[in-house]
Amino acid sequence: MTLYEEIVAKCTPQEIAAGNHHVVAAKVNVGRTKTVKTPIADVQALLQTNGTWWAIKAVAANPAHPAFAAADAVMDVANARYDNIDMSLPIVAQMFGGLVAASVITQAQADELMAMGVQPDPVTYLQCGDAIEKGV
Asked: How many CB atoms are located within 10 Å of the residue 88 CB?
């Protein structure tokens, strides 16, 4: 979706025609986000802070546990030579979903982890003005 399409979807024709691009930008920015790669160290720090890191490590050390594969995947990511993880990938959601299904972490904790990969993506009034002027 182009910025112009977002503007048309979120603003009334009157708001667009009024030419107050500050108002348009404010409306467009509501709920506007982008996905970003998340530092693995930050994920690990959150798991340690909320008390789930050691539970996941214990599950990863027990191949008989129902969430072993998910916990083992978390440990693989934590020990990877990569700096970041793309939290928007379906496999990442499955990894945390497996831990939720086995009650290793809560859904709220999984949601908090997944939210680390989402950031606000605001546009400026100048960008909105350009988009309206060009119609794209």
From this structure: 15
How much is the pTM? 0.76
pLDDT of residue 78: 87
Query: What's the Cα-to-Cα distance from 113 to each of 1, 12, 45, 118, 123, rounded to whole Å?
Result: 27, 36, 11, 10, 26
Q: What are the helix (H) ranges across the chain? A: 3-10, 13-18, 21-29, 40-49, 53-60, 68-78, 90-101, 107-115, 125-134
- Angle at which helices 68-78 and 90-101 pack, to 10 degrees? 130
Q: How far apart are CA 68 and CA 72, in angstroms?
A: 6
Find all residues with CB under 8 Å of 70, minimum gap 6, and list them: 59, 94, 95, 96, 97, 98, 99, 102, 104
